[in-house]
Amino acid sequence: MHVFITGGTGTIGSAVVTELLDHGHTVLALARSDASAQTLRNAGAEVLRGDLADLDVLRSGAAQSDGVISLAFGRDYSTPDALARSIAEESAAVAALGQQLLGSDRPIVTVSGTPWVPGRAATEADPVPTDGPVGGRGRSVTALLDLAAQGLRSTAVRMPRTVHDQGQGGFAGLLTDAARRTGVSGYPGDGSQRWPAVHARDAASLFRLVLESAPAGTAWHAVADEGDAVRDIATVIGRRLGLPVEQVPEENFGPFGPIFAADQPASSTHTREALGWQPKHPGLLADLENIQP
């Protein structure tokens, strides 16, 4: 399959590109910079120059493909307005890609977060939130899945709060960045809240499986660790960096504060049983031991 991918140099995307190439697919990847283009070529992908906001470029990439994986997302999460702009840009891109493939029965795989459900682990049957800080993303993914009735094999992979590799990435990576910046490995609330997690290479194998075989209109959970306590995450970070571990106000984490403070475990039982997906790389707490002081 010739696959068009956006976000192919990120933590998840670079692993997905490698996974696809290792399993006999070819890859056309969007690149916004010379550095990204060279990284993608070095990995073995073809390159399409452009930005996520270049909808005509996105349509061109989709038109040349047998399937699409949409992973690109803005990098500025510093304020609620910046986060909203990133979500709006992603939503427009996903809509354009879906419309380009409409009626072709070709697959498109997009990404969202696992939902959170009070009192239990979220499952694949739970809807993603369509309100709150990331509600726009939920609305965009839901709209894409609804196109399954119009000749589009639209699917979604729901990612946990931390996608990690060599101790980097995801919300745990943001905690590490904050610890380096402030001199304290901090966590909001009492730290008992749980975050699900997955290794980037395990997530990549699920993206490939969904692209190849998942039915239209379905959502899947890329969850290896159902829920690691945030205090335990902060403890490993503090030990690796030689910093004190302390509770800090959730406001210290900006627009992510309420999300960081929420208990949000997630299950992937259905995904494993239906698609035969089996995570095999280190869990989050073990992988965080790779953080360099």
From TrEMBL:
Domain of life: Bacteria
Domain NAD-dependent epimerase/dehydratase: 3-215
InterPro entries for this protein: Epimerase_deHydtase, NAD(P)-bd_dom_sf, NAD(P)-dependent_oxidoreduct
Gene Ontology cellular-component terms listed: cytoplasm
Gene Ontology molecular function: any one: aldehyde dehydrogenase (NAD+) activity
Pfam families associated with the record: Epimerase
Name of the featured protein: NAD-dependent epimerase/dehydratase family protein
High-level lineage: Bacteria, Bacillati, Actinomycetota, Actinomycetes, Kitasatosporales
